[in-house]
Specification:
By secondary structure, this protein is mainly α. About 80% of the residues lie in helices and about 0% in strands. It is globular, with a radius of gyration of 22 Å.
Length: about 475
């Protein structure tokens, strides 16, 4: 009973903070971008918590269980991307829009805004969906199977929807500082406790294949790039990150937050992978992790962090690690409902249907969309076998459908409206075809989708008339 009590207590605390912060909501600026007053410390916390989600906790940990430290290729793409973002953060904040589709219309045209919005909705609803699945697995484990993963996912969905509807971006950035502290503390304390349970590092090494401790594992460089590129291009096109830059109090705060973000992300993801490898050493030969033919069951390996919390690190260590899991699922889930609901509200409803809508009407409509998209995310989560495949589909959708067009806004004056638009369309369509028609493996999805997007971006731009200076100058001028 200890673990459920701890988790419920933590959830009540976070929701109480959100309710208090909801009193600050005066209009859509507060709800969508926290009034553009977020200081560096809070911005670092919310950026880290946005990135570390169920994809890391479940998909990444499961992959680390199966392949070992070569799984570091996956988060390394994000680490590289964050460094690149450092040089863009100030300019992004200077433009001070609300959403990434705002940027796309400013640099390209209204069609780019619409299709950019579609990409964000599809990808981010998918990401929110696997937070629900992760929460469902967590609830199943802490209740000893009394609540099924499916019912647990519904409960998680309801909690995240309610939390996000209360106070929008204000509540998200307010509680992500607490979530970030819990993440680092829980995972850091769990590692030595799990190592002790395993009998020490030497026992871990002896229990696992040697490939678990090599650069590529049992795979090759092509596989490594198939892991790295989706996270790299997702990070560079990550709408929630840009929207949180819009929330920063100024350009300097946005740049400083990126430094904190890269430190936090590198530390947490490396610790998570190390924890999963230790868990792999403990459970490598456990029949519960293997199918009848002896192969590892992906969905079971994805639960390794939760299993360690429940079985191997004691009550205090388990409570902290499960608290970290709650923080990861909740903080990412509410962000990835917040972003597409903002896109629908700002980029479609307000832009095309109700341009004269009042502040209260805009906030009310967005709250309705949070509910609708949350239920859609829950339904979409049933379309994928395991969390890693769901995560990489979303990664590639953003990485190929949005990132090239977004980066071109800031890095290439010659890009044209038609080049940006066809890049978005080409990347989006190629991702869908690769996943659902050609059924490519997760480490191969990025190649055709990104190739199509880049060919459209450069080819069409070079074949069409250059944009006038007033179109690109706001993205390059220092003042």
């Amino acid at each position: 009973m200890v673990f459920p009590i701890v988790i419920i207590t933590y959830l009540v605390f976070l929701i109480s903070v959100a309710i208090v912060k909801s009193k600050r909501i005066k209009g859509h600026d507060d709800f969508m971008v926290a009034g553009r007053t977020v200081p560096v410390s809070m911005l670092v916390g919310t950026l880290v918590c946005t990135w570390i989600g169920s994809g890391s906790l479940f998909g990444g940990s499961g992959l680390a269980f199966r392949v070992g430290f070569s799984d570091l290729w996956q988060p390394a793409g994000a680490w590289i991307g964050i460094i690149v973002v450092y040089f863009l953060a100030g300019r992004v904040r200077r433009i001070a829009e609300y959403t990434v589709p705002d940027l796309l219309e400013k640099r390209y045209n209204s069609a780019a805004r619409i299709f950019g919005t579609i990409v964000v909705i599809v990808a981010y609803v998918c990401i929110a969906g696997y937070q629900f699945r992760g929460g469902g697995r967590l609830i199943t484990i802490i209740t000893n199977g009394d609540i099924s993963p499916e019912l647990g996912a519904v409960i998680t969905c309801c909690i995240i929807i309610f939390f996000t509807m209360i106070a929008g971006m204000v509540s998200i950035v307010s509680i992500d500082v607490f979530n970030g502290i819990i993440m680092i503390t829980g995972i850091a304390i769990a590692i030595p406790l799990a190592l002790k349970s395993a009998g020490g590092w030497s026992d871990i090494v002896q229990s696992l294949p040697k490939s678990h401790f090599t650069v590529f594992g049992d795979n090759d460089f092509k596989w490594a790039m198939g892991m790295l590129l989706p996270t790299l291009f997702l990070l560079l096109g990550e709408s929630s990150m840009y929207q949180k830059f819009f929330s920063a109090k100024n350009e300097k705060a946005a740049r400083q937050a990126v430094i904190g973000m890269v430190i936090g992300v590198v530390v947490i993801e490396t610790l998570l992978i190390a924890l999963a490898v230790i868990g792999s050493g403990i459970y490598w030969n456990d029949p519960a992790f293997r199918a009848a033919d002896g192969t590892l069951i992906n969905s079971v390996t994805e639960e390794i962090a939760l299993r360690l919390a429940f079985m191997n690190v004691g009550v205090i260590g388990g409570s902290l690690l499960l608290g970290a899991a709650v923080a990861i699922i909740l903080s990412t889930g509410n962000t990835f409902l917040m972003i597409p609901s903002t896109n629908v509200t700002r980029d479609l409803y307000h832009r095309y249907f109700r341009p004269n809508a009042s502040e209260k009407e805009i906030v009310r409509f967005q709250r309705i969309m949070i509910l609708v998209l949350g239920l859609l995310a829950l339904a979409m989560s049933t379309r994928f076998t395991y969390i890693l495949s769901m995560a990489y589909y979303a990664y590639v959708m953003v990485g190929a459908g949005l990132t090239p067009a977004i980066l071109a806004c800031f890095l290439w004056k010659r890009v044209t409206p038609m080049g940006g638009l066809t890049s978005i369309l080409g990347g989006m369509i190629a991702t869908v075809l690769s996943q659902f028609i050609f059924h490519l493996e997760v480490d191969q999805l990025i190649y055709p989708a990104l190739a199509v997007s880049l060919v459209c971006l450069f080819g069409v731009s070079l074949l069409t008339k250059p944009s006038p200076e007033e179109k690109w100058s706001p993205f390059f001028n220092k003042k």
